[in-house]
Amino acid sequence: MELNSLPDNPYLLLTPGPLSTSKTVKAVMLRDWCTWDDDYNHNIVQEIRGRLVQLASRNPENYTSVLMQGSGSFGVESVIGSAVPADGKLLVIANGAYGTRMVQIAQALKINHLVYALSEVNPPEIGELKRMLDENPDITHLAVVHCETTTGILNPVREVLAEAKSRNIVCILDAMSSFGGIPLDMRDWGADFLISSPNKCIQGVPGFSFIIADKHELAKCEGQARSLSLDLYDQWNTMENGGGKWRFTSPTHVVRAFLQALLELEQEGGVEKRFERYCTNQKTLVSGMRSIGFETLLPDELHSPIITSFRSPSSEKYVFKELYDRLKEKGFVIYPGKVTQGDTFRIGNIGEVYPSDMEMLVQTIGQVKFW
Ligand SMILES: *Cc1c(COP(=O)(O)O)cnc(C)c1O
């Protein structure tokens, strides 16, 4: 494959995913695969499943992984809908759109649940969590988002999960926008189910989600799913016993691209090195933006290196769409804000992007300034 013959993307995606991917990730999609054949099931699917558990813990033997069709939310729904038994009760921590989505999933699936709701700029507090768990001893499961991509806030999930684990509560972690980009260990953290997707920090393309699960907890999900297609146990059982076979049509090209993305994560030096690059991206972006008069929504200590929310300029002449269009013309795609409190916009720090891209972006924002 002559990579130079592949067209360049007209702009860099500075978004929370899908994001800019390497040409090599895109190039491996230029062939077809048979879902019945070992070239696909053994060499690609099983290879990916093995690599995922290695990334998730220093004790990979306790964990297994499942790939699930659909975007990230399908993976979250498959876990919530399969892990919580009919007589279980779920506590959802929600301080943004993705926490709220887990509440909506529980509502849609008619799962008995309780919500610890916070504003988008506040992380959960352990004292309040303890109080809720004391008052509701019937809670069996807890679901929390690691990096709430709504704002870029990093929730103190280690402390949250430790509290839940001390009460034998099963822990579900939405690490969609952090897995592969922020170091974590499921065993040290006490996560029983972790959900993520290829098109975030692993820098693949969208089309499926993946779940890494404690084997013992996953085994308990048999027969519990509230959906046929999103039955986590059955999907796992088929993959595990069928040598990497998916129950229904798998997104073959996207899965192949994901393997390439995993290899490139390894070549970069693993999660630690990628984390360093994202941190440098984010710091470069924030210091540059501050130097031209912008303020971040969150204080630095609450910030993840994944995505950054900026307050919109207060000038009446400022319109997000105009900034968006002008930057797109110059090769950068940014993202609208998603918070209820105040006007913001977001800039993603993840993907095949480097500190020099962040410097160029800040310079370009300075040039296109129209307010
Ligand atoms: C991206 C994301 C999801 C999943 O979103 P989809 O649009 O379904 O892929 C879930 N949680 C978080 C925290 C995310 O960043």
From TrEMBL:
Q: Name one GO biological process term.
A: organic phosphonate catabolic process
Q: Where does substrate bind?
A: R346
Question: Does Transferase show up as a keyword for this record?
Answer: yes
Stretch forming the signal peptide: none
One MF term from GO for this chain?
2-aminoethylphosphonate-pyruvate transaminase activity
Tree of life domain: Bacteria
Its UniProt entry gives the catalysed reaction(s) as:
(2-aminoethyl)phosphonate + pyruvate = phosphonoacetaldehyde + L-alanine
Assigned keywords, A-Z: Aminotransferase, Pyridoxal phosphate, Pyruvate, Transferase
- Give a short account of what the protein does: Involved in phosphonate degradation.
Q: How does it assemble?
A: Homodimer.
Name by which UniProt lists this protein: 2-aminoethylphosphonate--pyruvate transaminase
